[in-house]
Amino acid sequence: MSEIGLFVQQLGLRRHPKLRGSLKILLAIALVGATVRMLPYLAPIRAEDIAQNEQAVTFSDRNGLPLGTLLTRDQDHTAVVALEQVSESFLQAIIAAEDKRYYQHGAVDLQAVARAVLEAVQARSLVSGASTITMQLARMLEPAPRTLPHKLGEVWVSWRLFAGMNRDEILQAYINRLPMGGNIYGVEAAARTYFGLPASELNLAHASILAAIPNAPNHYNPYTNWRSLKKRQRYVLDRMIADGYITPEEATRAEQEEIQVLLPDRGIIAAPHFLFWLANRLPDGVSTVQTTLDRPLQQFVQTQVQEVVRSLAAHQVNHAAALVIDNHTGEVLAYVGSPNYFADAQQGRNDGVQALRQPGSALKPFLYEFALEIGAIAPNQILADVPTHYAIPGAQLYSPVDYSERFLGPVRVRAALANSLNVPTVRVLEEVGVERFLGRLHQLGFEHLTKSPDYYGLGLALGSGEVSLWELARAYVAIARNGDLIPLSVTPGSRLPAASAQPLPESSYWALIGDMLSDRYARSQAFGVDSVLSLPFPAAVKTGTSSDYRDTWTVGYTVDYTVATWVGNFSGDRMRKVSGVTGAAPLWNRIMLHLHETREPAALPTPENLVEYPICAVTGLKPQPDCPSVVLEYLAPEHLNSYNRGSEFELSQEYNSWLARQSQPQLSGDRLKIAFPENDDYFILDAREATPRIQFKLAIAPETPIEWWLIGPSGKQQLNTEANHALFWPMEVGEWVLEVKSGDLSDRVTFQVQPPDNRPLRQGFRVRSEEEK
């Protein structure tokens, strides 16, 4: 009885011939199917089945300067050579070290197996292995844990290799896959990397060194453990003597020969991260590539990345990345992924340009532009920077705060964006809607923001999603081009399409966002006027800091270039109090100054279809006589109706908590506190105002009379004696001391008034000193 018939009988189907016949057919079909599926695992493996088709690619910069040659298109360096292109010394060395009877046995060396078993029994532990070169090749083709089932599988693959290939073909496949330390594979790649020689020119000293590495490639790495490698070389030479390949005298000369190991640049002159990234996007068959990179600029940026990281080492900073783009063409001019690609111990091969990290506040400009574009806010609108709480389902209250942990009360849109205030930004996102804003980010090409709007929540405006430096830079190029989102280019005449980028609607607000980001006075509250963000030519810039100081970003542009920088740790470890302005901004500053060293850029574009109007800095409306400060802001025609109302600005109930804090008597000991100006503030005169003035104000009005005194260039003078809580003062250029007295209480502050500079003064912001930030 057949096995199928016996199986049918066991199922109890003898009395049902029709069912029994059908079941036999089904079982026969299943058996045939299983056999067909097993055929690939039964057939011999031939040389063409495992052929390596890696081809070296040579890169140059935009001017034809060489950038380097990659042996392969990924980060595993491999170069394939024929057996006759490898020196006889290496072939003898590797056979002596790994499988001395290679040309005498089959796929498995039964003598070696018997010896290994006998030694193990005698020593009661594993003394030596019995892997042949064929078995090692099988393990390279199908890596698996060293368990008995996998070992049996390795033997089976070895038999298939031996059945389909001759010994020379197996040896050739083996030497081209040998692990040679780090990410180097094969004798040709190792010879060129370590010695700058082709495998055909290896002498006995070189060959015995390379043959020593595969036994433990990480331990015998020439860059990190030369002494151990030399001991292993002696073992290889001794085996070659025992097998009759060389004499003892030749072995001694090889061991004593001084060998120069090259620096680990793998034949790369500049931009290794970029070369590997681009190589993976090239079509097959390409062997030479001209790129858009500028090699001198690339090398300058690489040096600056290294220096900035070195300067921040005490703050637990280990990594940085930078990208430079030509705004006119979209061409990538410099691409630095880490301080040192070849520093394996420092995770140097990680690419900070493509890595996904939280961007902090770097996405805020896109939110404000979108909100202005759809009419969710107006340029002259006053936003509330006050304690605010949001109920998040299934979580605690979300209460956004700034790194200063201070609240400024009513602020203009320009100040909210320029000073990167979190509370007003979250309010704007709440008005716009997370889903709509996420859609705009997808339009801008942020293709890795793939989660749902609920996943990101209101934190999306503050960087709760993960983006790459590449995506950020590309989006900022769109701002620089007034909303014209173009694909970036890495080879002349071609562009890299963004997977999800879509055309943006025309809008005058892109230029307005650029104007706000270039306004050094608008950002003075958080950064001061003369910070590293302020350049001696027109430039727009935005910083970002992720939670717990894990990432810092600075992205900015002139008319000609966009520069994006990141500073942090690939491990995700926190830095020690390093923010965007102290981490990534100095790197951005250095690159920008270098780019414009010989030619100052043109002015940034002014917003079309928008007109500057004077507004009250406190109300955002048409100035009234009691307005303490008048500034200029761009408005569209649709904003003029509300602007012309000019009504008195009344704070809503949402300011109550903030007002309560402001109205507390600010006493230090027995001293009365001046609320405005604050100590070391300074002001810029607006020459277009007939009588520019500021308001002196106390934190609380005392019951006793107040004496106001002002000490300046013309001496000491008493001001209006009838004023109690506040008074207005016509500004004059100079250094001033404001003093106030009430009975036995007194307080004084110093401040400056500076003449107008040559730039259009639309900012009108008082400036904090460095100590107050």
Throw out a few tags for this protein.
773 residues; alpha+beta; five-stranded antiparallel β-sheet; five-stranded mixed β-sheet; 22 strands; 33% helix; disordered C terminus
Brief rundown of the structure:
The protein is of the alpha+beta class.
| Radius of gyration, whole Å | 36 Å
Output the number of helix runs: 24
Identify the overall geometry: elongated
Low-confidence stretches: 664-670, 758-773
Sheet/helix structural class: alpha+beta
Name the strands of the widest sheet in spatial order: 7-6-12-11-10
Strand content: 15-25%
Query: What profile does the largest beta sheet have?
Result: 5 strands, antiparallel
Q: pLDDT average, as an integer?
A: 83
Write down how many β-strands occur, each being a DSSP E stretch of 2 or more residues: 22
Helix content: 25-40%
- End-to-end distance, in Å? 92 Å
